[in-house]
Amino acid sequence: MEAPAAGFLGPRWRLLYLYRGADPAALKGIDPAKPAAASKARNTQCKVFRRGLDYNINPWCIAGAPVVAWAHEVFPGDADEVAIYKLWNAILHTARADGQDPESDWELHDAAFEKNLRFLNGNRFDYLHYTAANGTDLTIGMTKGHEWAGGKGKTPDGHPFFPNIPTEEVFTSPDRMRADGIVYSAMPLIHHGNKVDDFWIKFEGGRVVDYDARVGKATLASIIDTDGGAAHLGEVALISKNTPIRESGVLFYDTLYDENASCHLALGVGFPECIEGGYDMSKEELLEHGVNVSSTHVDFMIGTDDIDITGITPDGREVVIFQNGQWSWE
Q1: Angstrom distance (rounded) from CA 215 to CA 198
Q2: Global pTM?
Q3: Which of 78-82, 132-136, 150-154, 268-272 has the lowest mean pLDDT?
Q4: Backbone angles phi, psi at 294, to 5 degrees
Q5: Nearest partner of 88 among 117, 63, 57, 65, judged by Cα
Q6: Which one-letter DSSP state was computed for residue 248?
Q7: Which phi and psi (to 5°) does residue 198 adopt?
Q8: What is the spatial distance between Cα 66 and Cα 21, in angstroms, rounded to a whole number?
Q9: How many Cβ atoms are within 10 Å of 9's Cβ, its own excluded?
Q10: Is the peptide bond before 166 cis (omega within 30 degrees of 0)?
């Protein structure tokens, strides 16, 4: 294991990132390879910073605040102040911060996470099978010793924190070599200001072998071609359609929000916290255990209103996890 991050970003640091939402169209028309190269450079050159986040050494939280260009993309046709007001309301609602007692609301939300995590970690599924009427038919294998996470995270010494606000997902890192079949998008993907829409991705032996998109195929290609790990999955995330973001019907044109509206997958790097002993593993050891390594991590939404997900245990038992886009017990 590498030495813990030190210096300006030591383990005692806490990171709060309130970012001003960018203009979703700012990079429209730019060669997708250029922002992809910039993103790769940030992740590969800022190793101390990235390790502090990827290994949860530094508790962190990211949330958004509106700017006019973003507000107009979400609420076109409104005056500046009206669009900003609407976007603030949407953000506060999805963050469960607009009720009479937000602290209690988050405690209840956290309890729901704990219930779902107990179920998933208690079953230790060998693989998941996704099907939907749009043509999705995909199996994803789990690593041995995988752990589901979600809601609040924890540092290696057990300090709890919520890394994302809003957050609705429970997630894990699958076996990077065990994905087979085809999956269709449920929502547009906005990547570096470019839209990818109506797309599908085909996997064989864990690797992307084919793909297409009605809109933004070049952008999708730039993601998959980032590096060797970008053609493999680093995350599977489960989110019910019965969430404030999905029920609002708002497309935020921002992954922090839109990924929390739908079950999703991610191409690129996986999470050390999602395998037993992962915090003590080097990148090479994570790869050996099936956890993906890459300089990118791009979420794309696949959770349609009719998606079904079945978990298959090591002894062959089938357990319904999702039925018609929601947890089987909802």
Answers
A1: 7
A2: 0.84
A3: 150-154
A4: -165, 165
A5: 65
A6: H
A7: 50, 60
A8: 5
A9: 18
A10: yes
